[in-house]
Design a protein that fits this description.
With 280 residues, this protein is α/β, with parallel strands linked by helices. An 8-stranded mixed sheet has the order 3-2-4-5-1-10-11-14, with helices on both faces. The radius of gyration is 20 Å and the shape is globular. Strand 12 and strand 13 form a beta hairpin. Helix 4 runs parallel beside helix 6. It has 8 helices and 14 strands. The chain folds into 2 domains: 36 residues; 228 residues, Class I glutamine amidotransferase (GATase) domain (Rossmann fold), CATH 3.40.50.880.
């Protein structure tokens, strides 16, 4: 009886995966058809692709942040959302909560993509990532996720999605992975000091580093020294803080503060509506 139950569950999982693949292929076909028709009606003029990234601090999802990223992405017109938990948990609560935030706003084409750090990535998963309109990463295990991204086609798929105009969103610790580099803090127990190590990120944003507010405050002096060496900008995100980056422009969207360190300047606190020209 138990064996039959296990077989039944496996069949259900396969059916769900097959349904997801069919849905993705349908969305891609419809998107391509729509784009061809649009180009035909407009004399096949190329529309400039706007590259967008949302950096959102940890904590509960705020109404404003979700509303803004839906608005900026154009997801209501067409396309689908892919949520990738970097925790690798099969039932990531934050991923489910984010999916419900989209559902509550009548965005129904939302899929949670659970990756396995110990196995190859399915071609259908790569297809989903490359053709997503909105690609969300939830905080979790940074080093394990980047190891998977660097040793499979995952990183290339994410970069392809970004180049094609997908809006990329990083929540919590996952936001630190979107730039070219992210910070690791190694404690020297003998000298009672911290050493900052730069590790390769996903490469979506150059000359910008993202960190949470706790590390930012505790290691401000060390970060300032690294900023001068690397000639980059560091954003320190408070819980629920939000920064929208479009091409080389950044703007603070949320109510919470965003801390910033830039070369040759003292640490600054950015408020809602403030704009920053990024050095790339």
């Amino acid at each position: 009886m138990r064996k039959n139950h296990i077989v039944y569950k496996i069949l259900i999982l396969k059916a769900v995966h097959t349904l997801w693949v069919l849905m993705i292929l349908t969305f891609i076909l419809l998107s391509c058809t729509s784009e061809i028709n649009h180009q035909h009606m407009n004399g096949a003029k190329d529309k400039p692709i706007v590259k967008q990234v949302f950096l959102i601090g940890d904590g509960a999802y705020t109404k404003q942040s979700i509303d803004e990223l839906i608005k900026k992405s154009g997801i209501r017109r067409q396309g689908f959302v892919v949520i990738v938990p970097t925790s690798f948990l099969p039932n990531d609560e934050k991923a489910r909560a984010l999916q419900n935030e989209f559902y509550n706003r009548l965005v129904r084409a939302v899929h949670i993509l659970n990756l396995d750090p110990k196995s190859n990535i399915e071609n259908t998963d790569i297809l989903a990532i490359e053709n997503a309109s909105v690609l969300c990463f939830i905080g979790g295990k940074r080093s394990e996720f980047m190891n998977l991204a660097n040793h499979t086609t995952l990183k290339t798929a994410i970069l392809n999605a970004y180049e094609k105009g997908a809006l990329i969103v990083g929540f919590g610790d996952a936001s630190t992975l979107l730039p070219n580099q992210y910070l690791n803090f190694n404690a020297d127990t003998i000298r009672h000091s911290q050493t900052i190590i730069f590790s390769p990120g996903l490469g979506l944003i150059g000359k910008v580093v993202v960190e949470n507010r706790v590390n930012f405050k505790n290691d401000e002096a060390e970060i300032q020294n690294e900023v001068e060496k690397q000639q980059c900008i560091v954003f320190g995100l408070d819980d629920q803080a939000c920064v929208w980056i479009s091409d080389s422009n950044a703007i603070v969207m949320g109510e919470k503060e965003v801390r910033m360190i830039s070369p040759g300047n003292p640490p600054a606190i950015l408020q809602k509506g403030q704009k920053i020209k990024l050095p790339f």
